Amino acid sequence: MKSLIIYCSDYRGNTEEIAKEIAEEIGGRLVNIRDLKDETIHTDNYDLIGFGSGVYRESISNSLYRLVDDLDLEGRDTFVFSTSGVGIKLYNNKLIKLLEKKGASVRGNFACKGSFTPSEFTDKKIFNIFGKKSQGHPNRRDRERAKRFILDVIGDH
Ligand SMILES: Cc1cc2nc3c(=O)[nH]c(=O)nc-3n(C[C@H](O)[C@H](O)[C@H](O)COP(=O)(O)O)c2cc1C
Predict the structure, then answer these.
(1) pLDDT in tens, 29-64
(2) Residue 70 C-alpha to ligand 1 middle, in angstroms?
(3) What is the pLDDT of residues 114-149, one digit of tens each?
(4) Interval between CA 97 and ligand 1 midpoint (Å)
(5) Quick one: pLDDT at residue 157?
(6) What share of the chain has pLDDT > 90, as a percent?
(7) Predicted model pTM
(8) What is the pLDDT of the chain when averaged over all its residues?
(9) DSSP codes, the chain
């Protein structure tokens, strides 16, 4: 099975840790979106394509949305993952909708916490609680969850 994982992890490399964990299980090509430059991706070269991102101000990376929008994904098997301060799957919904609109089949959806320091980007006190809870993530348990997640995805592939 040939796979491709494209991720954006501009803040601290939290999402990259998860991307690497997944890539270790399924092999294939792992690409930071920053390194894609003007390369044209031939999606028909891959059996499975994963898209991952950190969450920045309530949204996964715009560069990832743009890339997905440009790709030919009709009939492709895909999966999505994100890391965020709160660690919820809700942030993946817009990307899932876009993938489905493009005719892709979304085989899996993963999210976990990723550490952040609220004072670096917000004055809102509420984020301090999430900031504290996020410390140390992704941790070993998150990485194990990611591993089980991708084994499930390829299991029903
Ligand atoms: C500018 C900025 C905005 C963020 N906004 C949110 C947010 O709205 N919700 C959330 O849960 N986490 C938020 N976070 C935390 C990140 O989603 C978290 O640290 C994530 O793991 C970053 O992934 P990365 O290191 O792969 O870039 C934000 C972080 C930064 C730097």
Answers:
(1) 999 999 998 899 999 999 999 999 999 999 999 999
(2) 25
(3) 999 999 988 989 889 999 999 999 999 999 999 999
(4) 21
(5) 62
(6) 90
(7) 0.97
(8) 96
(9) --EEEEEE-TTTSHHHHHHHHHHHHH-SEEEEGGGTTTPPP-GGG-SEEEEEEEEETTEE-HHHHHHHHHS--TT-EEEEEEEESS--GGGGHHHHHHHHHTT-EEEEEEEEE----GGGT---THHHHHHHHHTT-S-HHHHHHHHHHHHHHHHT-
3-155 fold: Rossmann fold (3.40.50)
Residues whose CB is less than 8 angstroms from the CB of residue 44 and which lie 6 or more positions away in sequence, other chains included: 72
For ligand 1, mutation pick of 34, 55, 93 (most atoms within 8 Å of CB): 55
User: Which residue in the block uniquely carries the two structure tokens 């895909």?
Assistant: 78
Ligand 1 centroid to Cα of residue 48, in Å, is 26
